[in-house]
Amino acid sequence: MKEKLAESFFSLFPSDYRVKSIVITVGVRIISILLTLSIYFYVGYLIPKGIDFSLQIRMVGTIVISVILIVPLQEFLEARIKKIFLSEYLFDDLLEPNGAKPRFEINALISKVFPDMVKISGSKYGRLAILIREPADYEVYTYFNGRRRKIKPKSVQIKDRLLNFLKDKKHGISIGELLGHSEINDDFLELKANFVIPFIFRERIFGFLAVTNIPSPEDLLNLKVLASKSAIAVYNHILSSQVVLHKKYKREFEIANRIEGLIFTSKVPIFKSFKFEAHQKDPNVLVEFFKNEDGECLFILLALKSTKVGSGLVSSHVLGKMYSQSLLKRKHNLSSLKSIAEEMLKKLSWEEGYELVVGSFREDTFRLTFSQTGKNFKITNDIDPTKSLISVGWRYTVDLQENPVIFIYYKSDKIISIQNI
């Protein structure tokens, strides 16, 4: 009870920030008045006493000198002193070169601007929420009794309903304006806030400041200026992070595509009774051969539907996994190879689609068995190249005595030819 009474009593007085601002303004103006009076007496000292209209000349001279020198000096001193004692990011010194001005970026927002905003509001406690990664990955900081610290992610949850509500409150909102919004009122209580001002840029919210005191109209103007700058600082940080990440991934994709190209150009295995020949280097079509201990041979052709830059990395990963499977002494079949490919793509969260052809044969026969997924693969012979020998979703056996040469196409490109030797 005593604490609440004390808090109510002290709330009647201006905040430390307001007192400092008033003292600086009054002090600078007193200095300006003293300088103006000094100029007035000095001009009077320079003007000969016997000259006509000496008082008028003294007054006009003082006014001219004051407008030219004293007024700019007053603005300069007020901005410089407030910048030192109040906030270096709120008060701009017009005479200071742009290169010497403090850079308003996300680290400055957290370490310097955030405490300044809490002090401007007249509060002793505040919370700062900053969007780090889209769509809704926020970091939260607290400021209390001159100390700032980062809150663990699980300690506070930034709810979507609060963010959607704040989008329409560009000028901030106090807890007294939440009649009819009981859920938002609960969010304010969880933040220990009586006033919240969002950081909005291009109709998107990039964070907010929550404080315990409701700022005065003049203080609110200052908070809105800093909130606008804060939104731009967070937006620039996210944008620069995305550029760096894009460059990193682009480099990885380029390396992956090179590796994939080197692997694809490796020689096709030689078999006793079958000759496989590669005709087209398509980086989106992967080829790998397997051999079981019982003499059965298998191969797989896998095509990723998307040609975006990420497919190079996925292709290299899948081809490497397939190659490692070929080295293991496990008995594979058409179904197991298909399942391995599907499982790998699922783990990589590949949602762009794929197509594949799986084949098996024995070297002491003339027959090959195929299974196909997708419509872009086509298996034909040299007798009638326009006719496909198999259909999607079915297993078909092709006899090389009846079809001396078999061609496997992907779209319009001939990938592999197979013939009996």
CATH architecture of the largest domain: 4-Layer Sandwich
C-alpha Rg, in Å? 38 Å
End-to-end span in angstroms? 99 Å
Bulk shape: elongated
Strand content: 15-25%
| Main β-sheet, spatial strand arrangement | 3-2-1-6-5-4
How many domains make up the 3D coordinates? 3
Order of helix and strand elements from N to C terminus: HHHHEEEHEHEEHEEEHHEEEEEE
The average pLDDT value, as a whole number, equals: 81
Compose a concise summary of this entry.
By secondary structure, the protein is of the alpha+beta class. Helix content is 44%, strand content 24%.
Write a structural description.
- It is a single chain.
- With 421 residues, the chain is of the alpha+beta class.
- The chain has three domains: 2-96, no CATH class; 103-242, 2-Layer Sandwich (Beta-Lactamase), CATH 3.30.450; 266-420, 4-Layer Sandwich (Phosphatase 2c, domain 1).
- Helices cover 44% and strands 24% of the residues.
- The protein is built from nine helices and 15 strands.
- The strands form three sheets. A six-stranded antiparallel β-sheet has the order 3-2-1-6-5-4. Strands 8-9-10-11-13 form a five-stranded antiparallel β-sheet, covered by helices on one side. It has a four-stranded antiparallel β-sheet with strand order 7-15-14-12, with no helix packed on it.
- It is elongated.
- The N and C termini lie far apart (99 Å).
- Mean pLDDT is 81; it is low at 1-13.
